[in-house]
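# nightly structure sweep
# worker-07 picked up a monomer target from the shared queue
# config: single-sequence mode, recycle default, output format = C-alpha cells
# input follows
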Amino acid sequence: MKSITLTVLFALNLLLFPAFMLSAETATIDRDTLRDKIMGYWLGQLVGNYMGFPFENLYLNEAIPIDIDRYYDFRDADKYDLKMNLNDRRAYPRIMADAMGGAWSDDDTDIEFVTLHALEKYGLDLDYDEISEMWKKHVNRFIWSASRKARDLMDAGLKPPHTGSRQYNEYWYRITSQLMNEIWGVVYPGITRKAAERSEWGARIMTDSWATHPDIVYGVLFSAGFFEENPEQLVRLSMEYIPEDSPFRQGMEDLLQWRKEEKDWRKVRALMHEKYVAEIDGFTIPYQVGGSVINGLAGILAILYGEGDFLETVAVAVSAGYDCDNQAATCGGLLGLIHGGNSIPEFLTKELPSRDPWTRPFNNQYINYSRDGLPNYNEIDDLVDRILAIAEQAILESGGRKLNIEGQTIYDIPLDFSM
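# output follows
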C-alpha cells in the first residue's frame, strides 16, 4: 500500500498543474516526508546496530534461542543463557550511551559518515581516486577483514576496484561492504538504477563478484523504499537488479518460496543455513559467520518475516545470528526509512541510557570516535539535513524537479521502477 501522503500529493499536483501530467514513471514527495524518511534511515541503523552488538559473530549453526526485541546487555547473559561479547564495549550499550551522551560511531554508520563528507567535497560523481583519498585520511581504525585489507592495499599503491578484487583481497567474499553502502539508496530516492550502480561502485572498494550483489539489492531496497512499503514487493523488485545466476538471487528466490510454505522463520533459517553458509558457487567460505551471502540473506529473511513492522523485522535480523548487528542495522534503517523516523518505538531511541531517558532520539547526538580527522560531535538533525541536501541534488541531476505548492516544497522524481 502506498503512503497516503504520496497519493494526495500526486492528485494535488495534477489539479494544480494540469499541463504537467505525471506519467507512471514519476512520483511526488514533499520535503518534510523525505526528511523524515532519511531520519528514519539514520535512527533505524543506530537501533539495529546496538541491539545486535552483544551477539555479533557468536551464533552460527543455530539462531539465538530467544527473540531479541529490546536492548540486551551483560546482565542478561546468565539470566537467559546467552552467548555475549562480554570482553568489549559491544555488551554494554547502556553504559556506552551514558558515556557518549547519545549515539556513537561504528562501521554500520561511520563509513557512510565518511562517504557523506566525500559527496559534499567532490559531488555525486565521486570517483575511486577521490574516495581513496578520503579513506586514507579518515578510515584507519576500527575496520576489519575486507575493509582492513582494502585500506592496506591503498597504502601499497592500489586503488579500487583492485582493492576489493579477488586477486588482491583475500577477504573479498565477506559481508564488509554491504553494511557500508546503504547511503547510495538514500541519496537516490526512487532512482533505483542509479542507486544500484553506485552501490556496486561502493562495494568494489572492498569486495568482488557475487559478494557485491547484496550491496546492489540493499541499495535498490532503500531507493524504492521511499515509495513502496510492501516487503515482498520490495524484495522481488530488488532481485531483478542482479544476475539471474547470482547465488544471492537464488537465495532470495528460495526465501520467497520458503516464506509461502513455512510460518516459522527459525525453520527457514535452518534451511537457508544448510544451503548457503559453507559453499557458494563452488567457493568454500573460509569464515562462514562473516560471509556476504548468508548475512545478506539473513536480512532478507527478516524483511520478509517482519512483514513491515520495525521491531519484528529487527528482532528477526538480530536473532538470526551470524554478523547480526550488521543486518539488524541495515533492516532497521530500511524500515525506518519506509515508515519514517517517528515510527521507531521510543523505548529504542530515547530509553537506551542507564540513567534518565533522552527527550529526543539518541539525544540528537552522534559521537564520532572512529573516523580520524572528521568532527567528533555531530547533531543527528544536521547529518540528516546534509544527506537531504545531497538527495535533492541527486533528484535534480537525475531529471527531477523541485516545486513549490502553496509554500510547500515538493519533489517530482523520475522513478525507474513500476509501483
